[in-house]
Amino acid sequence: MNSLCELDKKELTNRLKRIEGQVRGIQRMIDEEKYCVDILNQINAIQGGLKKVSLKIFDKHVHGCVQRAVKNEQGDEIIDELMNVVEKFTK
Amino acid sequence: MNSLCELDKKELTNRLKRIEGQVRGIQRMIDEEKYCVDILNQINAIQGGLKKVSLKIFDKHVHGCVQRAVKNEQGDEIIDELMNVVEKFTK
Amino acid sequence: MNSLCELDKKELTNRLKRIEGQVRGIQRMIDEEKYCVDILNQINAIQGGLKKVSLKIFDKHVHGCVQRAVKNEQGDEIIDELMNVVEKFTK
Amino acid sequence: MNSLCELDKKELTNRLKRIEGQVRGIQRMIDEEKYCVDILNQINAIQGGLKKVSLKIFDKHVHGCVQRAVKNEQGDEIIDELMNVVEKFTK
């Protein structure tokens, strides 16, 4: 169970399909010996796309799962878990 | 008002004093014409120190302020504000 | 033209195929309503994979294209271009 | 020895003095129990400042030290060292 509604799922799936296509595009660029800098810029675009996906999921998780847990007096556990994620994603 | 107790404040202040000293150290390294790579590695260490400070404050904020707000039915506003911060700190 | 040899191309293509599979895996996780935190951890793994790909290409680019350009007295242009990439990838 | 001219040194020292002041500002904010989110935003500003400093030094290093080394047939060693730095600073 997560906190994504049908609309979120549709939006995220569309984004991820685009990202999947971009990853395949990188494989093609490598195969066709495109210029390194162009490949790197394209990878940067993928990372930007993934960041958007993760921020969306993060947002829904905190508004949904975390709020529910806090109201059920189980906030501290879910927040510790959340901080683990934040640590990984923090620059 | 924030969610830092006296112990947190002491720990964070100590960390920040160290970071302040490291920033002064970089100025000295530049003045003494130290090798670029050594300066860059030192800046990286400072960034690591700042990340630890921000994760600590973030953790206390979510466990404290955010939980309190959720219990007072003001969760959505404080979580939107939180997501703004997360976006800035996310790689 | 880039600085990737056949061996690099093979290694990078393998990595990217794995990443492509992982991106499809995220779509499945969303479809199957897996837990947000598990999805986020999986996205973090993809970002780690992409970082490895970009560091490899970056490394080959500097050892190859950049060195060649410097020896042909065209170093400054290619380094300005490189710095543009570094800025995007820097946390 | 590094690749920073007097003008660079002056600019970087000014930036670092400002950053040092901002780090002291964070200590004050903690002491005065300012709101967590305001402290986090201020830390984010410091990290932005440090990124600018490191990009400047990186740029000068590649245009200067690295180009010189490449012309003296010592490019590969200095580029390996550079990649070590890039890896640390890459998100």
TrEMBL record, chains A, B, C, D:
Recorded GO MF terms? DNA binding; metal ion binding
Q: Which Pfam families does the record cross-reference, listed alphabetically?
A: Trns_repr_metal (PF02583)
InterPro entries assigned: Metal_Tscrpt_repr, Metal_Tscrpt_repr_sf
Ranges in coiled-coil conformation: 2-29
Q: Which keywords are on file for this protein?
A: Coiled coil
Tell me where the signal peptide lies: none
The superkingdom of the source organism is Bacteria
GO BP annotations of the record are:
negative regulation of DNA-templated transcription
Protein name in UniProt:
Copper-sensing transcriptional repressor CsoR
